[in-house]
Design goal:
Shape: globular
Structural class: alpha/beta
CATH class of the largest domain: Alpha Beta
Distance between the termini: 73 Å
CATH superfamily of the largest domain: Vaccinia Virus protein VP39
Number of domains: 4
Strand content: 5-15%
Helix content: 40-55%
Oligomer: single chain
CATH topology of the largest domain: Rossmann fold
């Protein structure tokens, strides 16, 4: 029997592996690279994978009414049905006939006659009976959870933090496609040169409203450009560029990037340093393989002479570095990653409130360890790619309470993002600028 390699079949295969623990972005990349697909089919597979994960709670709620209680459904069969439901509900231009026919064919190809009949029966029952109306759910938290496919605990946490209206705005945004943004590598090219080159190659280039030396690109993937190949730009979200801006790096600084892999912020720091003046960024990561990735990125972007990558747990930094060695320290800490839901949609289903509390302990441990390595008047920046105060403002407050030799600094960015805010810290929500959610705080060492 010939293996079914249609876009829908490939999406089901990728989703089944994600359900078993694979990362969606890595699994999708592997799926696309291992099959010779047209651009249209590549986009369709990508849409099916991310869209089904983004709306998974909603789709599962719909499916429950058409599957008998306690009936065992194989993971790939469930994904076949969820992919079909996703297309029918969210993709207006896909004919129902094509959705049904391919799902049933896939069931026939991968399973036995009983599975084919089951999938056929479920799809036709949905077609006859229609789907339940989520808007009629009385419990407001459950309704929002199912409407936007976000766990109830996370709905409550966001509401408590920012209020109902802002929470809905955030939830509406996280299921939208993520923008494609890039950072110009000013170590080897100017913003104007790269913008012109990209325009000449057919890209629509829009200057970022969030970060300096950054663009949003449309029409083609950024890694297909010749300026990506030459290291004149790198792919990085706009919000993720802000922690380095807050560091206020000078050319001759000694900088510590305490949680550095894969090296996006390390190379951003390195581009601001001058090796001839002694500027260097020491980049730490717990895993040797990730240290190699940092080194490869530094080489691609022509800043390897300013980067020293070391395999080390930042909490054990006392073993390797003396006190007061660094002018600037960046702790872009391990976090729940809930600001990246659009790029890694399965994150929302994997994290629990207990995970968040444990991460806070890790974050404070890293800050405590590295703080002794900062010179007097040096700047320490703490950042995360999440949107929860437990990992953000609460960590900043606890760090200051435990370290009276530090004082809070107002986070300043090149484009003066949210300059009218009342806090020293900077919180970026996904709906603010249609970018990733991020948090940035800054501290100065007094003595």
């Amino acid at each position: 029997m010939t293996k079914n390699t249609t876009p829908r079949a490939l999406a089901v295969e990728a989703l089944t592996r994600v359900a078993n623990g694979a990362y969606s972005n890595l699994q999708l990349e592997q799926t696309l690279e291992s099959h010779n697909l047209s651009d249209v089919d590549r986009r369709f597979v990508t849409n099916l994978v991310y869209g089904t994960i983004q709306h998974q709670l909603t789709l599962e709620y719909y499916l429950e009414g058409f599957v008998k209680p306690n009936q065992k459904v194989l993971p790939w069969v469930k994904m076949t049905l969820l992919v079909a439901l996703y297309q029918e509900i969210y993709l207006d231009r896909v004919p129902k006939r094509a959705i049904f026919n391919e799902a049933i064919q896939l069931a026939k190809d991968r399973g036995h006659e009983g599975i084919r009949r089951f999938v056929t029966g479920v799809l036709h029952a949905i077609d006859r009976q229609g789907l339940p109306d989520i808007s009629q759910i009385k419990d407001p938290v459950q309704r929002l959870s199912l409407q936007y496919s976000v766990p109830e605990w996370l709905v409550v946490a966001i509401q408590k933090q920012v209020g109902d209206d802002k929470a809905v705005s955030i939830l509406e945004t996280i299921n939208q496609p993520a923008a494609q943004s890039v950072r110009v590598n000013t170590a080897v090219a100017t913003v104007e040169e790269v913008a012109q080159s990209l325009t000449d190659q057919g890209y629509t280039v829009t200057p970022s409203l969030v970060a300096g030396n950054a663009f949003r690109l449309d029409d083609k993937a950024a890694n297909q450009s010749n300026v990506f190949e030459t290291g004149e730009l790198t792919i990085q979200d706009e919000s993720a560029m802000l922690p380095v801006e807050a560091l206020q790096v000078r050319p001759g600084d000694q900088v510590l990037d305490a949680c550095a892999a894969p090296g996006g912020k390390t190379t951003q720091i390195a581009a601001l340093l001058d090796a001839h003046s002694g500027g260097k960024v020491t980049a730490l990561d717990l895993h040797p393989k990730k240290v190699n990735l940092i080194e490869k990125n530094a080489e691609r972007l022509h800043v390897a002479d300013r980067v020293d990558a070391v395999a080390l747990d930042a909490r054990k930094i006392n073993d390797q570095f003396p006190k007061k060695q660094f002018d600037r320290i960046l702790v872009d800490a391990p976090c729940s990653g809930l600001g990246l839901i659009r790029r890694k949609p399965e994150i929302r289903y994997e994290k629990t409130p207990q995970d968040i509390q444990q991460l806070q302990r890790v974050q404070l441990g890293i800050l405590d360890a590295v703080s002794e390595k900062l010179k007097p008047n040096g700047i320490l920046v703490y950042s995360t790619c999440t949107i929860l105060d437990t990992e953000n403002a609460d960590v900043a407050e606890k760090f200051l309470a435990d370290h009276p030799d530090f004082e809070a600094m107002r986070v300043e960015t090149q484009l003066k993002v949210k300059d009218d805010r009342s806090t020293d810290t900077l919180a970026i929500y996904p709906d603010d600028f249609d970018s990733d959610g991020f948090f940035v705080s800054a501290f100065r060492k007094k003595k």
